[in-house]
Design goal:
With 274 residues, the protein is of the alpha+beta class. The protein has helices spanning 2-25, 32-39, 43-55, 72-79, 86-101, 142-149, 153-156, 177-190, 231-249, 254-273, and strands spanning 30-31, 59-62, 67-70, 104-111, 114-121, 135-137, 193-196, 203-209, 218-225. Helix 6 packs across helix 8. InterPro entries: GAF-like_dom_sf (IPR029016), HTH_MetabolicPath_Reg (IPR050707), Tscrpt_reg_IclR_C (IPR014757), Tscrpt_reg_IclR_N (IPR005471), WH-like_DNA-bd_sf (IPR036388), WH_DNA-bd_sf (IPR036390).
């Protein structure tokens, strides 16, 4: 009996939430008949749920014949909503990736001539190559080169240093625009990005794009001591990296975590054009 009652109340809650979602998306207040038809629910059920939600302030009834819209209580809850950070949303996937391959996992995006490290997770044997929330140069990192490789040619210069030669961090750093463009072409052909000791001596990074449809473009990478991420190891790690990238995009709160990043980019673009 208790299980049946619990199931009944859960069903009622689900139906009430479905009504709220419908009213929230509707361009105008809706009459009872339209709500019932849209959700394929009996009118008697919809009436009972609307009355309860109206008493609690979640639904507002107006007009004659009456129509229904979102009430003040929904707006009060919405004001307290804080979009989750990208680090909060992605931490579990990045942690699994880091422990599975034994390398540092890093999620990043382009910001001007830099890569913004959105979240970094190290394996238990700590290998600190970057810190979440920090910036690094795009032209000499696997994340940066991969993200630039998918840009139109006329947008690439905005993500490169203003003058050549670029700073040489190691003997392997590519320090000219022509050299970087050649690197980007190789990256496009390969389908993933590699920084083979170009930013830090003895450190190799490989990165893949997240399969997102809308901006901003994000990339996921792993970094390790160069001897641990040579060609054979890259072939082993690449499918694991792509699997993790797909898992990130499938996370329920991933789109919500993207919203502040889109706002950040929009503000940066407005400042550049001002």
């Amino acid at each position: 009996m208790e299980q049946r009652a619990t199931s009944y109340h859960s069903q009622g809650l689900s139906r009430a939430l479905a009504i709220l979602r419908l009213l929230g998306k509707a361009p105008a207040p809706m009459p009872l008949a339209a709500i019932s038809a849209e959700l394929d629910l009996p009118k008697s059920t919809v009436v009972r749920l609307l009355l309860v939600m109206e008493e609690e302030g979640f639904v507002r009834r107006s007009g004659e014949p009456p129509v229904h819209s979102i009430g003040h209580a929904v707006h009060e809850i919405a004001e307290g909503y804080r979009p989750p950070s990208m680090a909060e949303v992605t931490n579990e996937v990045l942690t699994r990736l880091a422990e599975r391959v034994g390398f540092t996992a890093n999620l990043g995006m382009l910001e001007g001539p830099s890569v913004l490290h959105l979240h970094v997770v190290e394996p238990q044997r700590a290998l600190r190559f970057a810190t979440g929330g920090t910036l690094d140069f795009a032209y000499c990192t696997g994340l940066g080169k991969l993200l630039m490789s998918v840009l139109p040619t006329d947008e690439i210069d905005a993500h490169l240093p203003e003058s050549e030669p670029y700073t040489s961090w190691t003997p392997r750093t590519v320090t000219t625009r022509a050299g970087i463009l050649a690197e980007l072409e190789r990256t496009r052909e390969a389908g993933y990005g590699v920084d083979d000791q170009e930013r830090n001596r003895g450190v190799t990074c490989m990165a893949v794009l997240l399969p997102t449809e809308n901006a901003p473009a994000l990339a996921l990478s792993v970094s390790a001591a160069s001897g641990e991420l040579e060609e054979a190891a890259r072939e082993r790690v690449l499918p694991i990296l792509r699997e993790a990238a797909a898992a990130l995009v499938a996370l329920p709160d991933f789109e919500a975590a993207l919203a502040p990043l889109r706002t950040r980019l929009a503000l940066a673009n407005r400042m550049e054009t001002a």
